[in-house]
Amino acid sequence: MDVNGKDLAVETTGEGPVVLLVHGLGGTSNFYQPQVAALAERFTVVRPDMEGSGRSPVTGTLSIQGFANDLAELIKQLDAGPVRVVGHSMATITVRLLAATRPEAVSHLALLGAVPAPLPEAGQQGQHDRAAKARAGEMPAIADAITANATSEVTRRDAPATAAFVRELVLRQDPEGYARSCEALAGAPDPGPVDPQLPLLLVTGADDGVGKPEVSESLAQAHGAATLDVLPGCGHWTALERPNDVTEHLLKFF
């Protein structure tokens, strides 16, 4: 699909009001595969691979603002009016920026594994270091580290296929697209507060060391009327590690 002159892979499933599912760094539209069937019974589920990820090639410098612009254009092309939007990890920053700058485009906002923006200085350097490793051909090592550090011990022990899928998502990324995505996260701006009138759902893992629970708790407190759930035994890859819980939350919220 042509979006702002970029060739983005976009999957559409179901009928009804639009739900836009946006993956994070190292993910693809398949991050949300466990939720699609249930959501598609009531909604039109739209899942893009963002530029530089999955099946969408990288064409230039990537940024959170650029990702938000692409989502706004995608919503415009869908002619769907305000839509229900879900973001994971890095995309929680993107969709918060979208909601802040294009409030007419977003009717509900759900954040899975919310991460801080801007990142602390050490986090920014970590993303630049990871970009350098990707360009040096170290994607297998990156995938191994993410699987070990960003999924919970419970997931790795009791659902090894889920941990393997996380590894495959990261390992199959285009190294240059992944590197530029890391740099986009390193340069992520503060998107500002979520409008207190916008319905807000936050779901994160108790064992999430990337989007730590206190980040979601702070966003919920600032909003004042958000729904927040911290899932025990869950790491950062929320929709894969606790698929049924995430699906139930989204259906109830929407």
Describe this structure in words.
With 254 residues, the protein is an alpha/beta fold. It has one domain: 3-Layer(aba) Sandwich (Rossmann fold), CATH 3.40.50. Helix content is 46%, strand content 17%. It is built from eleven helices and nine strands. It has helices spanning 33-40, 64-78, 90-101, 121-135, 139-150, 153-158, 160-171, 175-186, 213-223, 238-241, 243-253; strands spanning 2-3, 6-7, 10-13, 18-22, 44-48, 83-88, 106-112, 200-205, 227-231. It has a seven-stranded mixed beta sheet with strand order 3-5-4-6-7-8-9, sandwiched between helices. A two-stranded antiparallel sheet has the order 1-2. Helix 1 (33-40) packs parallel to helix 11, helix 2 packs across helix 3 and helix 5 (139-150) packs antiparallel against helix 7.
